[in-house]
Each structure stands twice: as C-alpha cells, then as structure tokens.
Amino acid sequence: VSVAESGGGSVQAGGSLRPSCRVSGYPYRAYGVAWFRQAPGEQREGVASVDSDEDKYYATSVKDRFTISRDEVDHIVYLQMNSLKPEDTGMYYCAAMKNGAGGYNYWGQGTQVTVSS
C-alpha cells in the first residue's frame, strides 16, 4: 500500500484549499483514510477521517469548515478546506488503515498548508 498527498499550498485567511490523497495497492473498500496535521512545535492531531462504509469524523476545530470525501473511480480522498484560519497552518499527512487493523499503518510524506492573516 502506498499513500501520496498533493494539493497543499499557501492562502490568505478565509481562503480554500483541497489537498488530495491517493492510496494505491489495496482494494478501494478495504481501508479507511484519515488526514492528520502537525504545526511546528505541536503534536500531530487528527483532522478528519472516512472509513470504508463512508462514516466520517471531524475534529471539533474543523467541523463545518472541512469536508472529507472519497472518489471511488480514482481511489483518491479529498479534504476540502474552506474558511481557512492561520491556526490551520501545518504539515498535513494522509494515512490509510486496513479494515480490522488497529491503527493507521500507511502514511504519506505530507503536504504543507500555510494560511496567512
């Protein structure tokens, strides 16, 4: 299984970005995917996740601003980020977890998101 992110960037506060995550090498409905982020000097935190049944989770800090979605055709998971705030700045990582596994074992290299005030 390989995981690769793309689509980060720099925007001003209030703007939008849509990073994407491609998961390869495993059946599409056999894994869940999550986005994490880590700001400099901070611990990594979970942002949003979607499992193989399309159940979704959002951190309180991003609820109503971020939307996670899966594209079954291209095996891509998107994170639509609207109304971005400077505190959303960080390295965003995508991770995949096989159904039944105890945690996220497959990680991408990350994509940088910078929000200026």
Topology record:
Blueprint: E1 2-6, E2 9-12, E3 20-24, E4 31-38, E5 45-50, E6 56-58, E7 66-71, E8 76-81, E9 90-98, E10 106-107, E11 111-116
Parallel strand pairs: 2-11
Antiparallel strand pairs: 1-3, 3-8, 4-5, 4-9, 5-6, 7-8, 9-10, 9-11
Descriptive terms for the model:
117 residues, mainly beta, seven-stranded mixed β-sheet, 0% helix, 51% strand, globular
What's this model, at a glance?
The chain is mostly beta strands and 117 residues long.
Q: Report the major sheet.
A: 7 strands, mixed
* Extended strand count: 11
Spans of at least 5 consecutive residues with low confidence: none
- In angstroms, what is the radius of gyration? 13 Å
- Run of helices and strands: EEEEEEEEEEE
How much of the residues is beta strand, in percent?
over 45%
Distance between the termini: 38 Å
Secondary-structure-derived class: mainly beta
> What would the average pLDDT be, to the nearest integer?
95
Description:
- The chain is an all-beta fold.
- The chain has strands at 2-6, 9-12, 20-24, 31-38, 45-50, 56-58, 66-71, 76-81, 90-98, 106-107, 111-116.
- The mean pLDDT is 95.
